[in-house]
């Protein structure tokens, strides 16, 4: 009995030793920018983080089809209708790639869909906002897909191979989504006063939700540390949000539209914009990788 207990203790200690050696090897591979593949050893926390992130991302792609999908029958021209159908179909495809990437981690698509339908799974809350006018379709493409690109380009270099490879293709398509949205906004902004007002009001509605897509501020972000260590995440939420603002503000100026932030100004010393930051600093705000 005593010997058996001792054996069990020894086996447990050896397993722990193995585990820590495996983790060291895993981290060395991540540091060397090697891709981790589905059959490779990985820490359980890395696996669970990826399942959570990739499935939330997949759900966001699928739910993201809804606010724009309801404009397909009301698109103003055949050209705009074709573009919108292609875009919404792309989002469904993104969901499918991402469910496949999540499945390589040992979770089934049925489980993931069940979690979405039961309301247990999270997805990007931006897709719960209403799209009352045609200009909202333009603002979504320009701002929501634009913010998604900012989040997703670094994910093309994510340490987990299947996720990184899915993101390469997704990002190419997101680039078309962003441009078609901007093109739509440009046409409205150069149109009648009523069309220009419609574009401005859509910008007013989507500006703050787009900034919130980058998640809580770094001080309140619970997942950033591990994700950066594992090279899932390359930049912090606030770094990405800043990049998005610096990239998007000149585009709004070119449209002749006003970003609805009275505190927005260019800081010449820092070579970046200052903007109102409190709206997205709540802890627990939904981090949206989706789109
Ligand atoms: Fe998109
Ligand atoms: Fe997408």
Task: Describe the fold and architecture.
- 63% of the residues lie in helices and 2% in strands.
- The protein is mainly alpha-helical.
- β1 (265-267) and β2 (272-274) form a beta hairpin.
- The protein has a two-stranded antiparallel sheet.
- α2 runs antiparallel to α4 and α4 (78-103) runs antiparallel to α7 (161-189).
- Residues 61, 91, 94, 170, 174, 291 line the site of one fe (ii) ion (FE2).
H/E topology pattern = HHHHHHHHHHEE
| Strand order in space, largest sheet | 1-2
- Radius of gyration using CA atoms only: 22 Å
Q: What is the count of DSSP helices, taking H or I runs of 4+ residues? A: 10
- Beta content comes to under 5%
- Mean pLDDT, all residues: 91
The low-confidence runs, each spanning 5 or more residues with pLDDT under 50, are: 282-291
Helical content (DSSP H or I, runs of 4+): 55-70%
Bound molecules: fe (ii) ion
Counting helices, strands and paired strands, the structural category is mainly alpha
End-to-end distance, in Å?
58 Å
Gross morphology: globular
- Largest beta-sheet characterization: 2 strands, antiparallel
Oligomer: single chain
Number of strands: 2
């Amino acid at each position: 009995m005593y010997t058996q207990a001792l054996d069990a203790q020894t086996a447990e200690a050896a397993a722990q030793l193995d585990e820590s050696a495996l983790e060291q090897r895993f981290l060395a591979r991540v540091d060397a920018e090697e891709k981790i593949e589905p059959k490779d050893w990985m820490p359980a926390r890395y696996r669970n983080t990826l399942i959570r992130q990739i499935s939330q991302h997949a759900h966001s792609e699928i739910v993201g089809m809804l606010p724009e999908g309801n404009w397909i029958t009301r698109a103003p021209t055949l050209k705009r209708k074709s573009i919108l159908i292609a875009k919404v179909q792309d989002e469904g495809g993104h969901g499918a790639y991402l469910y496949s990437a999540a499945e390589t981690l040992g979770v089934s698509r049925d489980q993931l869909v069940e979690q979405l339908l039961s309301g247990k799974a999270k997805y990007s809350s931006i897709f719960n906002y209403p799209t009352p006018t045609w200009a909202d379709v333009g603002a979504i493409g320009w701002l929501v897909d634009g913010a998604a690109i900012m989040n997703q380009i670094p994910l093309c270099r994510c340490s987990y191979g299947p996720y990184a490879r899915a993101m390469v293709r997704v990002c190419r398509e997101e680039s078309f989504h962003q441009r078609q949205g901007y093109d739509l906004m440009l046409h409205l902004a150069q149109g009648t006063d009523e069309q220009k007002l419609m574009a401005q009001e859509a910008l007013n509605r989507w500006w703050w939700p787009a900034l919130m897509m980058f998640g809580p501020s770094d001080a309140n972000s619970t997942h950033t540390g591990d994700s950066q260590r594992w090279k899932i995440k390359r930049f912090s939420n606030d770094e990405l949000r800043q990049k998005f603002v610096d990239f998007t503000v000149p585009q709004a100026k070119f449209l002749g539209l006003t970003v609805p932030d009275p505190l927005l100004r260019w800081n010449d010393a820092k070579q970046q914009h200052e903007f109102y930051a409190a709206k997205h600093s709540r802890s627990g705000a939904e981090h949206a990788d989706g789109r």
